[in-house]
Please model this.
Amino acid sequence: MNSFFAGTSILYFLGCVALAVLYAWLLYQGDKNLSKKMRYCLAVLRIIGVTAIAWLLFAPLIKTLNYTLDKPIIIIGQDNSLSIGQIKAAGFDQKSYEKHLKNLQDKLSDQYEVKTYHFSDSVKEGLDFKNQGKLTDAASFFQKIKNEYANRNVGAIVLATDGIFNHGENPLYRINQINAPVYTIALGDSIPKRDVLISNINYNNIVYLDDDFTIEVQVQAFQSEGENTILSVSQNGSKIQQLNVAINGNSFVKTIPVKIHAGKIGVQKYTIQLGVLSNEITTKNNTQTFYVEVIDGRQKVLLAAVAPHPDLGVIKEAIAQNKHYDAKLGLADDLNTVDPSKFDLIVLYQLPDAQNISVNFLEKLKSVKKPIWYILGANSGISSFNKIQNQVNLSSSNGQVQEIYPTLVKDFTSFNLNEADRQIFAAFDPLLSLFGRLTVNANVASVLNQRIGQINTQQPLWFFTNDNGLKAGYLMGEGLWRWKLSEAKNEVNTSGLSDLISKTIQYLSVKDDKRRFKVFTSKSAYDENETIQFNATLYNDSYQAVNDPEVTLQVKNEAGKIFNYTFSKTENAYQLDAGTMPAGNYSYLSSTSMGGKRFVASGSFYINAVIAEYQQTTANHQLLNTISKQSNGKLFMPADLLKIADEILKNENIKTISYEDRKYDELINMKWLFALILAMLSMEWFLRKRNGAL
Model:
């Protein structure tokens, strides 16, 4: 550390000294009570004190220089993935390798600061040779070095890996961000070995019941030309398909499509397996398992009417265009045997009717809270219609009908209709509607309003209501078949009417989730190296989110083993990080109590096995060599890794760096200087008085 004055001229300092000398001379030159020796002594004390006081008046700065020595940092990164432990070169001794790498660390520690890490799908401090990582992400290792050692003296990086990177970006693109040579240790075996494997499977996580879906299986084979293997597909342990695969090259790749029928609801476990060839390097990549959730996406729609009508055919045809909806037609007395609770949506076509033929069915409908689409016509029983629902009231005049044209409402937002539909509806023929005064007792979302002649009215024609979450639709006229004929006459490519009917069915059948206790995972499918996240929400009687009660969770695996957890509370909800779990199918049950009531919620999720480490068995030493050359490093084989220390020692660019730290302080801030001045003046005063001077 060096310190010296700065910010004022040396002349100022000499002036302060001259002033102090003059003051001391005037004070002591004529004092006869003091000896000559004492006068000189007191004068010196006065000169020092006055010089310091005068100098402080100029507020000088003192500059301090600190020099910090930064030793080079040598970073050792060890690949800890499965491929390192599974595929080894001939003559490789794991224990000797571990011993030599630790010896390298000790040898470098004598002159450098050494940091060690191990990496796979994540990066952690220290060396670890268990080789259990499911993925290899070397780019994240270099990113961690960049983040943690920015502006530090990184001398060199020692990277021990096989060059197989199956997660993140290519590490070659990251080495330029770190200005240090990379010395690579080439692990694994770069000579291709006999192997047949499933390299990838493309599939959809969710399919619908009774659908046929196709998966794409990519098969690879090395050093196996002329061989044949069997590709088998199993569902929940039962074989459902088997295909022969002929291998016609030593570097063989083929994508095989497999069609599967989704015939069972729930999470289905599918296993793809390749027959084992003799002398394969590993058989762990011959099998791959994945999970597909099969859901019954079909919404059941009941078309209830007294008698056949062409409008019913138009509606049924529109519903049939969506494979996730299934329409059933019920007429007259047949309705008395229909259970409305088994349907997701009820379409009442001119029901109640004027003759009250289906009165028993309508009685059953009263006790079932299902969305209903009411379509009125000339045969509707208006009095009964006004009684079975309370949203709409129509005062009819002796069954008279009138023609009503549709007008599309521009600000309708419950679902989207395109501009082409607007033009189509404007050209439609009129519907027949009962003459009467229409009164709506609820908020209305109208998609079509009534136009009578050339007069556009604000009376709704095709509209929706929502009574505490229970949706209802209304069409105040019959004659949809006329609109269908109008489209045919105008040679419309896409039916706007079918689109409107289909979207009406979808809008009415979608259920609002009003459960007071909800528990769900962040997604339904995970990889086995991902953490499982749960979220929960609890509502009070006013449907406000609360989180006072404790919420517990039980997770059950395929073997029936149960794992218990307790949720953590967030601001007004609950959250749980259950960590990672092995591959398989899981179900969960969560419970809590509030206000004397017990609430439960359940669900399921599945975890796919990660086998990326087995899908490439040939080490990529060429990539390691490229990384070393581009960074001015060098590649070493495991047997020669101790030579890395000598290579680093002779690298002149790896050296200690000295950092200069400059600091400026005002001299007046140095408290010890005031103590010195006070001591000088006090000693002078004491000596003067002791020797009888004034």
